[in-house]
TrEMBL record:
GO molecular function annotations of the record: histone deacetylase activity, NAD-dependent; metal ion binding; NAD+ binding
Keyword list, A-Z: Metal-binding, NAD, Repressor, Transferase, Zinc
Protein family per UniProt: Belongs to the sirtuin family. Class I subfamily.
Signal peptide as annotated in the record: none
Native organism: Naumovozyma castellii
Catalytic residue list: H203 (proton acceptor)
GO cellular component: chromosome, telomeric region; nucleus
Name of one Pfam family that matches: SIR2
Lineage summary: Eukaryota, Fungi, Dikarya, Ascomycota, Saccharomycotina
Protein name per Swiss-Prot or TrEMBL: Deacetylase sirtuin-type domain-containing protein
Amino acid sequence: MEHLRLTTELRSSSFDEEDLSINKERKREISLSSNLQTEKLTHLRLLDGSDTMLNQINKLLNKSRKIIVLTGAGISCNAGIPDFRSSKGLYESVKKEFPEVSIGSGKEMFDISLFRDEVKISVFATFMEKLYANVKLAQPTKTHKFIAHLKDRNKLLRCYTQNIDGLEENLGLEVSMKNETSKDKLNSKFNSTWKNFDVVQLHGDLNTLACTRCFHTFPWNRFWARSLRRGELPTCPECERKDLKRLQLGKRQIDNNIGFLRPNIVLYGENHPSGDLISQGLSLDILRGRPDFFIIMGTSLKVDGVKKVVRQMSKQVHERGGIVILINKTSVGDSSWNGVIDYQIWSDCDTWVTYLEDMIPDFFKTQKQIEKLRQLKRENSELKKKKLSSTIHTPPTTPTKIHELTSSNEIKIEEHKNELMSPEQSSDDEKKSPKKRSRKVIPKEGKIVKVKRNLKQKLNSSPKLLKAEAI
Ligand SMILES: [Zn+2]
């Protein structure tokens, strides 16, 4: 029992010490990060002489606890998903398929205004089916895995993404806004529901279809995929069901009561159907999430709503002593981001993650590995304390003298001889302290052999002495 109590005390004491050291560490961290905040957006490259600055940023990242991530098309490029704004890829292939349709840019294919034109709707449907087929084949990139790793290490506060590919879900991350409607806002469990989301899709999800009228969502199926590929938007089964019910009840039929299914993504010029929920969740992250590091990856920050998110989040991160970094290969226009983004690291996102793996390998240990290391450290520390305590309580008797005998000091040999020749005392000691008994055996073989030889010479090989030595 005493042993157990001691262990518990040791543990609680070591936790207190840990708390104290965490506080000290936190103060150092805040002081370090405050030095790293910049008034002007600073540019860094992975392979030039900016290493000192990058090292400091890496150190801070390694210590941060609540990381906010914002991603854009740049993180999915290496998965083979094209940036729809670029003039290549899918947009070009659709343009070839519909040469008669005037579409100036890839961005136009994501603009709500296309719904005014039947031909453009057709192009949109074909384009979306191609994009969906592309996404279905894509695998998460190193950057997606990095985000999943942040979650594994309990360091991910939230990942906001402008991407509609949902690749994060392939890694087991919980993606929000898949089926929620504004009614969910009334849900009293909003806060706890929001906390379970890892990824918030700011521009919707390509992997589901949504009705243009009732906003009901459905997973894709082969029949609907074929329909979209032909350039036709399927009718909504939910609207059809309701319409049939009205008919059966003899109610008045309403014109255009049946909506069409389209990918559940947010187009330019339209509001996000879950916009209110996202705002509510964003406020929760800003006010209660305590974000201490903000990583923006693979985006040029062109969308107004996203710019607002960055400014709000950056303010909060800076107030908490953290910094904001952008990993991107193209410029975002410095002047508007001074005081908001501290550093732009000019790099491909996957390359940056590989660089981090080399620079801060500890950061990439899994939570399991970290916990195992902590446990080993705790056990080691307890063992050391126990050893120390047992050394303090052991009277300086025979072992020390045996050690001293190795110096061939004749007087000490005599003292030792007297002790060993007293069987009563020896036996009492053994009863009182079994540890002492074991310590007699512990001395190194070389030394004890020397002791034996000296004693043999002095005591003419007393059988009693040899017995005592053999213990
Ligand atoms: Zn519907």
